[in-house]
Design a protein that fits this description.
Layout (H helix, E strand, L loop, with lengths): L7 H27 L10 H17 L5 H5 L2 E5 L7 H18 L3 H12 L6 H6 L1 E5 L2
Antiparallel strand pairs: 1-2
Helix pairs in contact: 2-4
Length: about 140
């Protein structure tokens, strides 16, 4: 593959940035609305649903980027280099990450780490399911 695939480290940092940016933003809005600080909303399924929706829809309107990936200049692309679609993002985030990870009790996430580290194309389980990869900007 002649594409410049993004490795595990940069992808992990992008995910950490997204986590903190979303948690701080949502917590701030809730603080302004309720007048008290709480992160109870981030426990259980609430956070998982919010994060999955964010990861599914934001790349569709932002050309393959979420905030963390934009900061680090990496983006989600299709293998054939065409524009990503809802179908691809649904397969990647909802099926490949959310459902498969929960069904396998997190085992697919561990396998994905090793795939991104050791595969030449740096594609994880969710990338294979959706026909995507994460690439540096060009």
């Amino acid at each position: 593959m002649t594409k410049k695939a993004a490795g595990f480290g940069v992808r992990l940092i992008a995910d950490i940035l997204d986590f903190f940016i979303l948690v701080i933003s949502i917590s701030t809005v809730l603080f302004l609305l309720k007048g008290e600080y709480s992160i109870e909303w981030s426990t259980g399924w609430t956070w998982q649903i919010i994060y999955t929706l964010y990861l599914t829809f934001i790349p569709l309107v932002w050309g393959g980027y979420v905030i963390g990936k934009r900061i680090l200049k990496i983006k989600i692309k299709r293998i054939n280099e065409e524009e990503i679609t809802f179908k691809h993002m649904f397969l990647r985030e909802v099926v490949g990450k959310f459902l498969v990870m929960n069904i396998t009790f997190g085992l697919s996430a561990i396998i994905s780490v090793f795939m991104v580290v050791f595969r030449e194309d740096k594609r994880a389980v969710h990338d294979l399911i959706a026909g995507t990869y994460v690439s540096y900007e060009r």
